[in-house]
Design a protein that fits this description.
Layout (H helix, E strand, L loop, with lengths): L5 E5 L5 E2 L10 E2 L1 E3 L1 E2 L8 E2 L3 E3 L17 E4 L6 E6 L4 E7 L14 E14 L2 E6 L3 E6 L6 E8 L7 E6 L5 E5 L2 E5 L5 E7 L4 E9 L2 E8 L6 E7 L8 E7 L1 E8 L2 E8 L11 E7 L5 E7 L12 E4 L2 E9 L7 E9 L8 E6 L9 E7 L2 E6 L4 E5 L9 E4 L11 E11 L7 E8 L6 E6 L6 E4 L11 E2 L2 E8 L4 E11 L4
Parallel strand pairs: 2-3
Antiparallel strand pairs: 1-41, 4-34, 5-6, 7-33, 8-9, 9-10, 10-11, 11-12, 12-13, 13-14, 15-16, 16-17, 17-18, 19-20, 20-21, 21-22, 23-24, 24-25, 25-26, 27-28, 28-29, 29-30, 31-32, 32-33, 34-40, 35-38, 35-39, 35-41, 36-37, 36-40
Amino acid sequence: MSYKPVTIQRNRFDGGISDSSRKSAINEFQTSRHFDIFTDPFKLIPYRSLESDTSTTVSDTDLKQYSVRNFIYASNSAKLYGLGKTAGGLTKIVYKDDATTGNWTLPSSSEGTDATIYDCFFEYKDYAWGFQGTTSLFKWGTLSGTPSITNAAATVSATITSVANGIIAADGNAYCAYNNVIVRIAPAGTITDNAKTVPDTYKITSLTNYGSFMAIAAAPKSTYNGKSKVFIWNLSSDLFSETIDWGEGELRVLEYIEGLLIGITDRYLNNSTGAGKGSMIVQAYTGGSAQVLKEIYTQALTGKTIPLSKEVKNNRLFWAAKIMTNTAGTTYNEGIWSFGRKNSQYPFALSLDIIDENINTSGIQGFGTAANFFFIAHSSDGSLDKTNDSSTYSFTSEYESQIENFGDSCLYKKLEKFTIYTTPLPASSVVTVKYKMDAETSYTTLGSFSTTGGISRDFINIESTGDNFPTFKEITFILQSTDGAEITGYKATALPLIISS
């Protein structure tokens, strides 16, 4: 009995990260890192690399001492504001006149008199707002004039142990949260503590507008047990319009996209009670109950929970997370993840969008955006990186395919040819192809493609040695891009073999 060669071709990537590495899917994959899969579903487009953004007029690294973690992109200028802290731990606001370039400015009028509290920093009525100390709400403004800080714009009624982001709601008021309490800020500046509360067994982690309502993400105080909830409030009633059971774990991020409430849950990522099965869960709610759309499991404790930072851009929700990819806890996928789709004609997809090769194992503490620029606070030492303001692609963008069996995992096969397809390659750009077979744990380099202006290359053996491809039952491919190479697809042909015993 003889077999005919089997060819697989992959040239669509809009399905995002798959539910299983063995799923048969022409547009999904195991992982993508630092590739834009949304702009063009038929291309893997590398993102620019990131560069250090810690310069002030004092030195190139002066900003690091202020540990800036939260950001506001101004509504009426090109300015970017950052929330950090002084050497004594007190509130410190810094800014850039142009978010995309130049030095940070350190105004003396922005230093508070109480300790910085991160994760609630927002703009409302020409002021930057946030919490500080143990019971205070501060404001800094006017942003369009000569700002000064008001350290006790309000005093809240309980000691602050956790906070959530601020939003401007449908009624024109701003809202933010601490512990289990919602605070209202009126346009005239009147501040109402306890505008609404959730049960005190919960902490509020994220607020979002939900049409003319507010959706309030609330996680159990204890990370060891309990289920998260989402409370729907009409902004005025004593009662909630709806209470949604969001399931086990700590709901960290909640947003409203295309008629869906999208929530990101940290389910024992850094908790031994997960018994090695911690996960990051993407859920959606449109009525009834919250549905799990994606679940990514960690192979070891991550050492950190999912940060509260979030952004909504181009129909997508962005957040930061770290997922361990081996049981030894030595390798991981960490960066800015996204969930969304190009438009209504395409599927919702999960992707690890932005990575920062400069971070250490302490990872990401917070991030923000200004248009298409990302700002990532990382490494727990005040480091801050931003999207490069020139077309620089020094990071490696990577795509890891599904496990391919060419139609039958029982048969041995021999790879006969592998073809890589690209847009015309820019000078100095390189696409590297690697493979891993069966029970192998590491990848072997098949070859690379770097012909300036080239759009495809065939490989018929292992480039470095000239050896023929080995036999396999299952195979996985990695495609790596450096210096801006855009990948449009690949094709692989394998011949099933009869192996005599």
